[in-house]
Write a structure and sequence with these properties.
about 40% strand, five-stranded mixed sheet, about 15% helix, alpha+beta, single chain, eleven-stranded antiparallel sheet, 7 helices
């Protein structure tokens, strides 16, 4: 039971009221004992020695009268104490009722939408370990404004600016991205480029009527080689403004430059992108419609090379983890429309000269409009403000790549084909679409440390993944009722060349269940993996780095449809765990340098209701976060209910449930309610 302000206003006054009659009764008892003690012969003899005690009957009457007076006083005292006790009991019962009522009201507010608007601006945030800043150095301490721009109707119209390095010696760069918005709007994806190289992928929170604000600070020193020369800054945040979607995103982006004797970073960064900066356009590929292939040429003194890949699903692929097997996409067409296929399994593949060089099994990012909007106010989803980029060490390919010729780098996204009697296999395509870019971090060495060009490809052991699946469709005489399915996958990959190697071991499972003719769906998924890198370190010796990860996910959502209303009830429990012994430079995956141990879990319930031209969202989300890196540990625990942080000793960040985007027309089908943007 939590007292808080309630205890201040009720508990202490009640305590005082109870103590007053008890104290009064105690004083009366003391007074009675002093003035009405039961007389004895010895006491009377001491006070009245002249009295003749031989006439005992007379004094028996005196004693009886005295005792009677004493008994009457005691009776009055007992009556007072009875009244005081009754008062205490009544006040205690009243207090208990008030506390219980207050507690039940709070619990009820966790389960229902509030229709009370607040004038406060909602402060959204992502839980992450704050970027540590050293004291300003004498060599350099500069802040540069990179962008101040409002993204209104901005599809195909990115912000384009220019950057000139500050005139000082710096080795550390961090950006501050601050956004405000007010009105009604979907969550939007945003990508930042320096020329053709993506350096930051984020997404927006969904605004409220009274407005939202958030700030994200990101380490950007891993791109130091780019910051050392003039760059075209392209920030692509596609937004839509019309009579329904009224919220622009007002952004400010600054970069701070300092000298902190940071770790060594890549000497050269080669983009795997569409390279459209010359036309002031964004350079991401949309897969599968685009062929995400580039030709790259390497210098001849390379010691290590690491590819990072930035990829996330949009539109039909945003909730890829809830997709079904191809033969089941029409199972519930009459109730929820066509389901998305190619199974809930996805694999992002990197090919070098047509040879598989590594794979990524993606983290299931959920943006702030995903599943149910009530989850994500003010705590946004894991990584929603900074999407991690998994890495593939391609150093075993360097003897082949250092011949001075162009070599192709291609990124593909695969799902699973329709099962046959021979089993199930990887597909060559998926639904529309994935936003994909990559880059190669190149570390140069001295001539004696550099890998020599031999033209010999590495030794590759990459058997096809092992898959198993099951499905069961239950029907009645008129319709399909339930669908259950499961997919399991396991893959190993080993690529070696001389003293360098890249090894992966990945596992995946997804159990899906749809009932109520498709109106209710649950997916329980987990992806785990371990990657091992061995190669020549920057100091010249052989080094080995190991990274493990786990992505558990459990999402359950149920739709209720009537002629005049729509209801969504959802729950989720998800997490992210990363353990790494380190690596070269600053990792785009762990977001830090050196060893790291990160573990976070997010869970909650959300409700959405729309009827009569208006809608309401509510939700309760809790997140635990802990990261040990850079010699320090940061741990926190936050709970939010209906847009307000309720964790003890945490600042309340405003506001109760707000009108949502659905009230002004919404989206055309149940499945697309959970989609993003106008697609």
């Amino acid at each position: 039971m939590e007292f808080g302000a309630l205890g201040l206003y009720f508990y202490f006054p009640i305590l005082v009221i109870v103590l007053i009659p008890v104290w009064a009764a105690y004083r009366l008892i003391l007074c009675h004992e002093r003035t009405h003690k039961s007389p004895t012969i010895s006491s009377y003899n001491a006070i009245n020695p002249e009295i003749d005690f031989t006439n005992k009957g007379k004094y028996d009457v005196i004693f009886s009268i005295s005792n009677l007076k004493s008994y009457r006083s005691a009776s009055r005292i007992i009556d007072i104490m009875k009244i005081a006790g009754a008062l205490c009991l009544s006040l205690f019962c009243f207090y208990s009722f008030v506390v219980a009522f207050h507690h039940n009201i709070n619990r009820g507010l966790r389960r229902q939408a509030s229709v009370t608007n607040s004038s406060s601006v909602l402060v959204d945030f992502e839980l992450y370990k704050p970027v540590e800043f050293d004291p300003p150095s004498q060599e350099c301490d500069k802040v540069v404004l990179l962008m101040e721009h409002s993204f209104g109707y901005s599809y195909g119209q990115p912000f384009v600016g220019s950057f000139t390095p500050p005139d000082c010696d710096f080795d550390t760069v961090r950006i501050n991205f601050t956004v405000t918005s007010r009105g009604r709007q979907f969550d939007r994806l945003a990508l930042m480029y320096l020329n053709d190289t993506e350096v930051f992928r984020t997404s927006t929170a969904e605004p409220t009527t009274n407005g939202i604000v958030w700030t994200y600070i990101k380490e950007m020193s891993q791109y130091l080689t780019l910051w050392k020369s003039p760059q075209k800054v392209i920030f692509d945040l596609g937004n839509l403004i019309d009579s329904t979607y009224t919220g622009p995103f007002n952004t400010t982006l600054t970069a701070s430059f300092t000298k902190e004797n940071s770790v060594r970073t890549a000497d050269l960064i080669l983009p795997i992108s569409a390279r459209r900066s010359v036309n002031d356009s964004a350079s991401a590929f949309n897969v599968p419609s685009d062929n995400a292939t580039v030709d790259l040429t390497f210098p001849n003194n390379v010691q290590r090379a690491v590819v990072s890949i930035s990829a996330c699903g949009q539109s039909e692929e945003e909730f890829w983890w809830s997709s079904v097997l191809n033969q089941d996409i029409d199972d519930f067409d009459s109730t929820v429309g066509v389901l998305y296929g190619f199974s809930p399994f996805r694999e992002i593949q990197l090919y070098i000269d047509g040879v598989l060089a590594g794979v990524i099994w993606p983290f299931p990012v959920i943006f702030t409009g995903g599943v149910a909007p009530g989850f994500w106010r003010p705590i946004v989803g894991i990584d929603a403000f900074d999407l991690r980029e998994p890495e593939i060490d391609v150093s075993p390919f360097l003897p082949l790549l250092l011949d001075g010729k162009a070599h192709s780098f291609e990124i593909k996204v695969a799902g699973l084909n329709t099962p046959t009697s021979n089993g199930i296999t990887l597909s060559e395509t998926v639904n529309s679409y994935w936003v994909v870019t990559g880059k190669v971090f190149v570390y140069l060495g001295h001539s004696e440390d550099s890998i020599k060009s031999t033209g010999v490809p590495p030794s590759i052991h990459a058997p096809d993944p092992e898959f198993s699946f099951s499905r069961n469709l239950v029907s009645n005489s008129t319709a399909n009722e339930t669908l259950s399915y499961s997919v399991y996958a396991h893959r190993t990959l080993t690529i070696t060349s001389g003293q360098t190697s890249w090894i992966q071991d990945l596992s995946f499972s997804n159990y899906g269940y749809l009932n109520q003719e498709g109106l209710s769906q649950r997916n329980i998924q987990n992806t785990t993996g371990i990657s091992t890198v061995k190669g020549i370190g920057l100091s010249g010796g052989v080094e080995e780095y190991i990274t493990t990860f786990s992505y558990p996910l459990d999402v359950n959502n149920t739709y209720a449809l009537t002629a005049s209303s729509t209801t969504i009830d959802a729950s989720m429990d998800r997490g992210l765990s990363i353990s790494s012994s380190g690596g070269l430079g600053i990792s785009t995956y762990t977001l830090t340098s050196g060893p790291v141990y990160l573990q976070t879990r997010q869970w909650g319930d959300a409700h959405y209701y729309a009827a009569g031209g208006s809608s309401y969202s509510s939700g309760e989300t809790t997140q635990e976060f802990s990261e040990t890196s850079g010699g320090t540990t940061y741990s926190t625990y936050v709970q939010a209910v209906n847009g307000t942080v309720v964790t003890p000793n945490s600042q309340a960040l405003s506001l109760p449930a707000q009108n949502s985007w659905f009230s002004a027309g919404g989206r055309p089908s149940i499945r697309s309610i959970l989609g993003r943007g106008p697609n």
